[in-house]
Each structure stands twice: as C-alpha cells, then as structure tokens.
C-alpha cells in the first residue's frame, strides 16, 4: 500500500500527541516488577508498548515482540528475574539485531539465557530466577536500552546493582529518564560518579502513575511548521511538559535554529501543558550538531534540512546502523530521491553540502524499510514537493494515529496500491 500525500497551503491546528513510548515502556516493566495491579495511565497505544502489555499480562511460553527493539531488550532483563522459562523472539529483522552485550551482562549477574538460533542474536530461551547482582561493567557506547534494561531490574537483585560504564557514554538522557522513572516508583538509584550508577536493593513501590505525551512524536510537528510555506503556520500540541525528562524534548532547541519557536501556555514547569509552535522566520544558513544523546531525532532533522536547503554535518549517529534498518544508508537512498546527495563517514556522520541535483521522479516514492521513523520524518517533506510513502502503516510502531492527525491538520492522503 502507498499514501500519496498533498500538503495544505494554510496550517492552523491542534493535535493530541500519543503518550510517550519511552516512558510507557519503562513504567510497564517497573510496574510489573513492583507487583502492581493497576496499569499506568495514558499508556502509549503503539505496537512497541502493546507487545510489552501482552507479554507481562499473559506471560506465554513463547513471547513474540515482533519488531519492538525496546521490548526485546527490556523483556530480556525482566524475564531473567521472573520465575519460569520463556522463549522471546521477533521478526526476521529482530533476529538480526545484536543482543549479545546485554545477554553477556545478564549472565555475569547469574542469568540463565540460551541462544535458540544464531549466537549473539534473538531468539532467546530464558529461565528466570533470583539473581544476586553486585558490581558490573559495561561499555558506555552501547545502546542505552541495554543499560536501562539492567538498571530497571537492579532494585529486585539481592545485592542491588553497581553499574560502571566504561569509555564514552552515549544517549545519557535516556539513562537519566530510566533513573527518573525508577525513582518515581520508589527506587534508590543514582549516579554516584561520572561513570557509575548505584541501585540499592530496595523493592519498587506500587502506585498510580500517569504518563506524559511524547516529545519524539512532537518532532514531526516541529518539522511540519518548519517546512510550511504559510508564514502564520501554527500547531498546538497537548500533554507535554516543560522541563520534561524525555531526552527528545531537546527538539525545541534544535528547531529554534530552523525557524520554529516554542511557546508554553504558562511558565510553570513540571506539569502537562499545551505547547504552541509558530514560525520565527529565522533559520541558520548551516547546521552542525552531535546527536550522540538524541539519535532518534536524526532522521527528522536530516529531512528538514534537506527540504529547507540547509547544509549540515551531523555526528554521533553510530547507533543508527543497528536500528529498525540501517538508518544512515536509508537516509542516503531516500534523500537522493529529492535531489540531495548525502555523504557519510566513520559509520557515525552524515553530511550534505546543500547542492541539489534534479530528482529522478517528479513525485518520489519513499521507501520506509519497516522503520516507523522513515515514514514519520519523510511525510512532512510533502509541504515542499509531492511525495508518495510506501508501507505507511509502519507508523503503528510508535505513532499509530499519525495519518489521521495529518488529515486533521489539512493534509490530503490518497491511498494507492503499490505499482
């Protein structure tokens, strides 16, 4: 299936964002470890969250987390400390996404985990039991989800967990988000130095918990305002928090460089608010940025810069190689369709010199590579030129009602069968 997207000439809309997937997935694991009987409120309705809900609710012998990388990592640690034997598996792509670093770390803590297929990759057979815990070292430049998975089981380990991160530490805001949610449920968990996190063996407390909406999803609306030709373009987003612990809330600062200003409904921090996005009509002539702490925003910013004609040099993209697809290669291929020749370096950098070449097709057909963020970040480019999105339903992984929200904002979406 394909969506042919036509953008509106005027933009003035209010959008209810999905709940934060990052907070939802952490809160669910912690809720389950607390033995709670009331699910957190305002959970994300995306695929990644739904597979965790199903898994912790029914605990089947075989748990299929489909394409949800977060669920694979978090559930692997969770199952290691829960009684019973389970096999955890996923899509073909998931079976080629490495998990050896996390398995090795859990085995160091005494976990009973076997590879069902290829060494270092899912599926896994996990026999859960009480783990002792203690001191553990892990490289700081691995996926922060490995680190978060280990931290979240820390309070239920007999001796707690002292986690030392070696080398460079990437995606630190996601680690901080995990620690914040853990403390919301009563955990004693904190950085005790620049590279050591201590988690005391103090059980989680059961509590009611409400989840704020998603700053990652907000990024696509920032992109829409940035690309809108309507100088009065306005988008109101509900349920966000000023001073949010979500790392991707940095999007408001990045887009201030790309012509979008953010106005909170009040100056009060720490509560859910409506955020209004407007054009500032001030845009940098060139953008350099290190995404080491915010890799999920990279596709959105790349697409925005290419559509605006802003040359860039982006660093800190090493984890993009092992996401739902190789996002560096995917961006190079799809940006070429709109005339932008991207170059990469060191498996962690993307550059564009701002020079365009003629597009191969008048209406480019954008491939999504089974990657939700390819669809979400490329759809707004329709504000600058007609585009078609292949396999648009992939957005269900994180933002299921994205296409409906685009229609609310005035976009026209025509469904087509793939040629």
Topology readout:
Layout: E1 2-6, E2 12-16, H1 21-34, H2 47-58, E3 62-64, H3 69-80, E4 84-89, H4 100-108, E5 112-115, E6 124-128, E7 134-139, H5 144-153, E8 161-166, H6 172-184, E9 189-191, E10 196-199, H7 215-227, E11 234-241, H8 251-256, E12 258-264, E13 272-283, E14 287-290, H9 298-308, E15 312-315, H10 327-336, E16 343-345, E17 349-352, E18 365-366, H11 372-378, E19 387-390, H12 402-408, E20 412-416
Parallel strand pairs: 2-11, 3-4, 7-8, 14-15, 18-19
Antiparallel strand pairs: 1-19, 1-20, 4-6, 5-6, 8-10, 9-10, 11-13, 12-13, 15-17, 16-17
Helix pairs in contact: 1-2, 1-3, 1-6, 2-3, 3-5, 4-5, 5-6, 7-9, 9-11
For this entry, give a set of tags.
419 residues, 20 strands, alpha/beta
Quick description:
The protein is an alpha/beta fold and about 425 residues long.
Written account of the structure:
The radius of gyration is 21 Å and the shape is globular. The chain contains twelve helices and 20 strands. The protein has helices at residues 21-34, 47-58, 69-80, 100-108, 144-153, 172-184, 215-227, 251-256, 298-308, 327-336, 372-378, 402-408, and strands at residues 2-6, 12-16, 62-64, 84-89, 112-115, 124-128, 134-139, 161-166, 189-191, 196-199, 234-241, 258-264, 272-283, 287-290, 312-315, 343-345, 349-352, 365-366, 387-390, 412-416. It has 419 residues and is an alpha/beta fold. The strands form five sheets. It has a four-stranded mixed β-sheet with strand order 18-19-1-20, with helices on one face. The protein has a four-stranded mixed β-sheet with strand order 2-11-13-12. Helices cover 30% and strands 24% of the residues. The longest helix is centred in the N-terminal third of the chain and has 14 residues, at 21-34.
């Amino acid at each position: 299936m394909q969506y042919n997207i036509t953008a509106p000439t005027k933009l003035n809309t209010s959008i209810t964002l999905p709940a934060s997937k990052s907070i939802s997935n952490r809160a669910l694991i912690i809720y389950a470890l607390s033995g709670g009987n009331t699910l957190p409120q305002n959970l994300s309705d995306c695929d990644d969250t739904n597979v965790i809900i199903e898994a912790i609710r029914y605990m089947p012998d075989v748990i299929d987390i489909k394409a949800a990388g977060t669920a694979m990592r978090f559930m692997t640690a969770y199952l290691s400390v829960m009684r019973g034997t389970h096999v955890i598996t996923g899509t073909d792509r998931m079976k080629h996404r490495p998990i050896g670093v996390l398995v090795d770390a859990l085995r160091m803590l005494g976990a009973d985990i076997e590879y069902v297929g290829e060494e270092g990759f899912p599926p896994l057979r996990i026999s859960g039991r009480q783990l002792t815990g203690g001191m553990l070292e892990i490289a700081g430049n691995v996926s922060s989800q490995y680190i978060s998975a280990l931290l979240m089981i820390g309070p239920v380990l007999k001796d707690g967990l002292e986690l030392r991160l070696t080398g460079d530490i990437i995606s630190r805001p996601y680690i901080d988000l995990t620690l914040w949610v853990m403390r919301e449920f009563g955990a004693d968990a904190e950085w005790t130095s620049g590279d050591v996190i201590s988690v005391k063996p103090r059980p989680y407390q059961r509590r009611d918990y409400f989840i704020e909406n998603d700053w990652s999803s907000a990024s696509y609306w920032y992109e829409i305002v940035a690309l809108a030709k309507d100088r009065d373009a306005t988008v109101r987003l509900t349920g966000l928090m000023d001073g949010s612990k979500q790392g991707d809330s940095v999007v408001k600062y990045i887009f201030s460089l790309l012509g979008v200003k953010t106005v909170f409904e009040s100056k009060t921090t720490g509560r859910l608010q409506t955020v209004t996005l407007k054009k500032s009509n001030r845009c940098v002539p060139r953008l350099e940025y290190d995404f080491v702490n915010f890799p999920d925003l990279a596709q959105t910013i790349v697409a925005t810069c290419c559509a605006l004609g802003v040359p860039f040099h982006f660093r800190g993209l090493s984890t993009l190689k092992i996401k739902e697809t190789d996002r560096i290669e995917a961006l190079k291929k799809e940006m070429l369709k709109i005339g932008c020749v991207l170059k990469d370096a060191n498996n962690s950098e993307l550059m564009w010199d701002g020079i365009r070449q003629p597009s191969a097709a008048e209406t480019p057909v954008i491939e999504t590579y089974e990657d939700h963020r390819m669809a979400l970040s490329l759809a707004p480019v329709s504000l600058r030129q007609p585009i078609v999105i292949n396999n648009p339903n992939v957005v269900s992984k994180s933002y299921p009602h994205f296409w409906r929200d685009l229609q609310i904002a005035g976009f026209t979406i025509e469904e087509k069968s793939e040629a």
